[in-house]
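Note to self: keep these together.
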Amino acid sequence: MADTVLSAAATAAASTDLTTHEQVGDGMAVVRNPFDGETIGSVCLTPLTAVDDVLRRAREGREKARGLSRAARAAVLDGAAALIEERAESFARLIVAEAGKTLAQARKETARAVNTLRLSAAEARRNAGEVVPFDAYAGSEGRLGWFTREPLGLIAAVTPYNDPLNLVAHKLGPAIAGGNAVLLKPSLLTPLSALRLVDTLVEAGLPEEVVTVVNGGAELGAAVVAAPEVRMVSFTGGFRTGEAIARSAGLKKLAMDLGGNAPVIVLADADLDAAVEACVSGAFWAAGQNCIGTQRILVERAVYTAFRDAFVERTRLLRAGDPADGRTDVGPMISERAAVAAEATVDAALAEGARLLCGHERHGSLYTPTVLEDVPGGSALWREEAFAPVVVLQAVDSFEEAVERANEIDFSLHAGVFTGSLDRAMAAARLLEAGGVMINDSSDYRFDAMPFGGFKYGSMGREGVRFAYEEMTQPKVVCLNREPV
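Structure:
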């Protein structure tokens, strides 16, 4: 994977934060609605010359965070969750405006962010450490003790544009629960939801120094992640940026969610209606800008034609358009540049012999849900993450071939399998090389409490509130030597 040349769409996804913003006035970046280009806000860019001041504030935040009891951390997180729930429609409308998600999708993301913060509050109260049974080892009968979970100190969090509220909550919630301070660098394409979340945490009682927000591009990011004060970098985004962070970071913990190219296997004994419905949603949710979105569907040949025809028919019913219109199913991509890149990737696959079944029409940043079949295995569309409303159908002759084709890719987050056989389901769970295997569900299912992360190239660390909390804390052992009873 490291030597792979990224497709146009993958390159756009990896670099879009750094190249698609015009600056206005002195040190400002405009935030635009991806559907109509309307300006909805602006943010101050953090100059490189301010990095020392940023780090000084972050060190103050680290000490403030350490001084918060577990009860205080939990109260802040629960309080912020309650405020977001109370203002849910306002948060959802902001997500629609800056990220282009449909209203239904934005409302779901807002509800998930509330849950993420509440799970984080529970972790602050619960996950404090445990007793170590020293006396279980011969020669240590006179010892007793425990370990605690202590904060790492200062965490740099770099977040993407596709889930501008909940993915920020997945960084901030566990970090605050663990007693850490955070340097947050949100996507320049969608910073407003992140800023509103930070303001809400402060309103709920978090000392304002605990989270320091910086806005900028690659140079600023490199300076932040390289700072010795930063003890962990939590990053969600593209492979190229992840590799650059790994080179810059030095000796610190890294947790990275670098995307995927999710396969879903549909076997002949599956409930085809359920599989079609789930896979259409999994492929086109958030205009396909989803790291666990269904991209490659491997269908057993005996039911391939029936599945294909039903899938295409269902896809054609999806309405692409204004995300603020409640009737819209698929909104715009994050920018016209991203949509042009997706279109170019599909053009390349068609030139290589793929067959178009529906879609592949672009109107500005809108790219219609697109279905192809017979995409060559060497095509960029087969081997790389499209991060667009594009799905590939492929007939296979056996379960074994389906698993082999699913595992061809050098990186993986989620996979799915539809089958009526418990034996086949359990075999798929064992054989599929993925961080999560969804049985009778598309790859696009995620519950915010479950461990979440990738397999194979570039995979390190796990999100999911408890698991991120444990990544962001460190055990301290206390051992008391006393005379044996």
